[in-house]
Amino acid sequence: NNALSGKMNKEGYIDPENITGELAKNLFDLNALFVDARPKAEYDSVHVKGAINIPYEEFVIKPFSEKRDIMKKFNKDGLIVVYCKGDKCEVSIDLAYEFARLGFTSVSIYRGGIKEWKEKGFPVEP
Would you call 64 helix, strand, or coil by DSSP? Predict the structure, then answer.
């Protein structure tokens, strides 16, 4: 079962999938939207090249309508990869589920995060 063949769960959304660094890089090469779930200061210091920052702590407390507004510019069926710092970081998982509940159908969680991404020598900014 990969990121592209999600099935609707009983809550009515498609569960995000955990992906490896290799698959994350493949999705990067396919112009997937990478979302960094870390606080802005961490994102500003280094992030996956082209990633946007939606800090989980700020996003989760917003009302549903505001979450929907923030995400409405993105394609509901587009590839989205959510990550954080790696290791024991859970906010990528939580943010991925927030997106899934908003109706996004191809949400992946890259558990290796920025730590593994950098170790593999994949593209970062700044």
Answer: helix
- Output helix, strand, coil percentages for the chain, rounded to the nearest 5: 35, 20, 45
pLDDT exceeds 70 at position 3: no
pLDDT averaged over every residue in the chain? 94
Q: For the chain, what is the largest distance between any 2 Cα atoms, rounded to a whole number of angstroms? A: 41
Q: 5-17 b/e with 16+ CB inside 10 Å = b?
A: ebeeeeeebbbbb
CA within 13 Å, CB half, 96: 26
User: Cis (ω within 30 of 0) for the bond into 63?
Assistant: no
Task: Please identify which residue in the block is written with the tokens 């900014």.
Answer: 125
Q: Name the H helices within 2-105.
A: 21-29, 40-45, 56-60, 64-71, 91-101
d(CA 23, CA 14): 19
Residue 100 or 6, more confident: 100
Phi/psi of residue 59, nearest 5 degrees:
-70, -45
